[in-house]
Structures are given as C-alpha cells and as structure tokens.
C-alpha cells in the first residue's frame, strides 16, 4: 500500500511534459502491443504446428518403413514355416544318420541359406525342434534349449510371428504346425535380425534432436535411442501426448503404431528445439514491435515539446511575477485552452496592478498618515517628559501617591508603546500588566486583591503586546466592580506542552451561559476579548487563542494560549 502511494505521488510530481509523453506513449503502445502480440502468438503457433506436422509426417514415414521391413521378415518366417520340406524334416523321426544328414544339409541348410541371401538383415536362422534331429551349428537346436525362455509360452499359444528384443538383439519367432501327421512335433522357427539396420529409419529424426522409444503391447521396451539411459514412461493406453515435462524440461510428444508387430512408437523432442526454427520470424515481429514503440516515443517527445513550449514560457513569466515584477512578456493569439490561459494570466496581472495601486498603495499611505497623526497626538517623549516633571514636583512636595501614579503611568505607556514593535518580551508584558493593575488599585482605593503566579521560565519568550491588559481590564470591569465588597484577581503564567498559558481568574459575579457563548464572537467598544482572541488565531492558528469558563456568582477564568517562541 505504501509503495503504491509513493508511486502515485511520484507520478503526480512528474513534469507536465513527461506526463504528456507517457500518456502519448501509453495510448499508442496499446494497439501496437495488442496487434504485435497477436501476430507474435499466431505466427509462433502456426510455425510450431507446422514444425509438429512435419515432425509427425517424418515419424509416420519412418514407422511405415519399419513396418514394411517387419512385414518382409514376417513373410520370410511364414514362407519357411509353411515350406513342406522344412515341416516334414522337423516332424520326421529319423532312424539313420544318413537320412538325418541329408535333411539337415539339403533341406534345412539350403532353405535357410536362400532366405538369408534374399535378405541380408537376417543374421541368424535357427530351427528349434522336438524331433530327434541332432544340433547342427546355428541351424538346428533341440527345443529344450528355449523352453526356459520368457517368450516360449507366448509362442506356443499362437501361430503368428512374434517379435522380441533384448539390449542389442532383435529376433522374431514363429511356431511351425504340421496338420498332415497324426503326432506332430513341437517346432519353433527363430530368426535374429540386424538391430541397427531395422531401426535405421529413425536415425534422421534422432539427428534432429528427437528421442525415440518403442514399446511392445505389454509395455516392454523394444528400442530406445537413449541407449540404456533413463527415459520417460509411457502407458500404451494413453492417447497421443501433446506436451510433457521431464527432467525439468518441456517436451513435445508424438505417437504412432506399428501394425505388423503391435508396437507403439513414441517420439519426444524438446519443445525448444521445435520452436527454434520459428525464432527468425518471431524475432522479426519483436523487432517491428520495438521499432514501433521507439517511433512512438520519438513522436511523443517532439509533440510534447512543441505543446509544452508555451506553458514553459507562461511558467517562467509566473516566476518573475512571484518575484515581484508585474510585467507580462508572454502572449498568445491561439484559440485553444493554453491561449486562453495565457490571456487570462495577462488580464489577471493587469487587474492585480490596478488593485495594488488602488488598495495596497492607497491603504499603506492612509495608514502612514494615521500613524503620523497618532504620533503627533501621543508623542512618547513629550508624555515621558511630562510624567517625569509631575513625578519630580510630587517628590518636592512629598506627594508620594502622585509620584507613584506618575511612575506607574510612565512604565505602563513605555511597555504599551514598546517603541512601535508588535512583539514584546513576556517579562515586559507582565510588567505592563503589573503597572496597569497598580494604577487600578489606586483608582479603586485598593478595594480588591491581586495575586501573581508566573513562572520565570516564560520570561525570555516573546509574545504580541497588549494581550494581557484587556483580560485584566475585563476581570475588573465585569467581575470585581459588580461585587458588593472585596474581590480578588489572580494572574498565572507557565509553560505547558511547548505553549505559554496565561490564566486570569476572578471571584466576580460570573457570566451567564447565554452571554458566555457569544462573548468571543460579538465585538466590544474597545480592544476587548474578541480582539485578543482573533489576533492570536490570525498570528498562530486556530488552535491558539482564548477559552472562557465561568460560573454565575462564583467567578470567571479566562485562559490565553500562545506558542512558546524565542
């Protein structure tokens, strides 16, 4: 949330030219990115599908070649299995060695030799027989030699050609039946074919980075291009895969069948290799998108610079006006919003000049004249000299009360006038109040008491002058004078939470609630509480000023709060 707020503030504080440039770039980039992204996606998909289609066609062609080769081997196996001479030789019970030798050399060897010459891929042909034929090289072996083989039960259950494999050898096996004899022997024809030549059709696919896995109907591996290494596991019941992930890499998987043997061929190739051929056109599309974005950025910069020039001139002119020069040096006759803004600024400055001349200058002159008239009426030097003469004459005739009054008046007016300054030390303001209070005590024949509780810590601070005297005067006139007899006024001042707080308390007649709510709002005849309150708020803010608490017949407390300033 905080990071989003900081980003929003940062965007808000950007230069207007930068905002226009970014807005122009953003608006222009949306269709470019959308169309470019669509073209990129569609082009990539089409190229990938084309590559997959080509790869699938190559896989089917290779599988077809393998299937044709297997059919050739199956035909040879069927031909030999149905050869009546071989069937008779395998099922005959021999009584002489010559007869046995004749069948081995002239029948079995001759037919097997012919079959191998017709197809060089056959490495070995062997007849496993249940007759009494002796073992003859690689051509004839007793049936007992293969009864323990894993594939033996499967072969004995069918008359079809079955294919099996181990790590490096491929072989096909077929049972030989004899339906013409009453007690036929069990015979099996075995052929081992060249492994590499059989799966040679897949070499071109492997050269392109594809891996081939062939499984039989029971899921046993017939061939793997990984050559004994770990490979993915495919279930024969699964449909043709589209993509899979194996060893942390994405692969595209294709599948086809070998109908002759019932094998399933799986081709899995890293998707990155398939899409690599599409990258040249994809790179072209990306380059075009980047070029369009760069062109938009350049156009946006030129446009925003052209648009912002008049605003920059207006801003510079405003700075000179802020520094005090009321001269307008930017003009515009355009009818757009910027032209209206420039003309409005010029009109505003012209009217400001008129108002300054009419209000500010004339008001200053009037105040100066009033101040001079006031100074002429109340000349401090004349007043102080007059009070000094009164004090001196009073001392000569030993009139101490007149001397005291003259000294108090001199102190009061000296602190009140404060040499024309609006700010005064707190200590001098309190001295002013004390002088005023002593004058009031003499005027009232000391009919009330006065108490001061001021903390000396506030004395070095400054405050506006003539802020306390109206509070004391209000307490005397509206509080103490209305009592039948006696009375007490207490002035306190101290620091509270970085503020100077004065309290003027009296035990006068108090203020009615309806009058109390209007006391700081209604103007008075002289410089009263409302003036002090408004002055404090104007100078320091709405949290400062006067608060009044009063209880009828018990008294009033007036609090003045000001900031503590050196």
Write the layout of secondary structure elements.
Elements: H1 2-12, H2 16-82, H3 84-91, H4 97-118, E1 122-129, E2 140-142, H5 152-156, E3 162-165, E4 170-176, E5 187-193, H6 195-198, H7 203-207, E6 211-215, E7 221-224, E8 243-246, E9 249-258, E10 263-270, H8 271-276, H9 279-322, H10 337-377, H11 380-396, H12 400-417, E11 423-425, H13 426-443, E12 449-454, E13 462-464, H14 469-480, E14 488-496, E15 499-506, H15 513-516, H16 529-540, E16 545-551, E17 555-563
Parallel strand pairs: 1-2, 12-14
Antiparallel strand pairs: 1-5, 3-4, 4-5, 6-7, 6-10, 8-9, 9-10, 11-13, 14-15, 15-17, 16-17
Helix pairs in contact: 2-9, 9-10, 11-12, 12-13
Word description of this protein:
By secondary structure, the chain is an alpha+beta fold. It folds into five domains: 83-198, Beta-Lactamase; 202-278, Beta-Lactamase (2-Layer Sandwich), CATH 3.30.450.20; 326-363; 378-418, no CATH class; 421-563, Histidine kinase-like ATPase, C-terminal domain (Heat Shock Protein 90). The chain is 52% helix and 19% strand. It is built from 16 helices and 17 strands. The strands form four sheets. The chain has a five-stranded mixed sheet with strand order 2-1-5-4-3. Strand 14 (488-496) and strand 15 form a beta hairpin. The radius of gyration is 59 Å and the shape is rod-shaped. The protein starts with a helix and ends with a strand. 23% of the residues are buried. Residues 369-378 have low confidence and may be disordered.
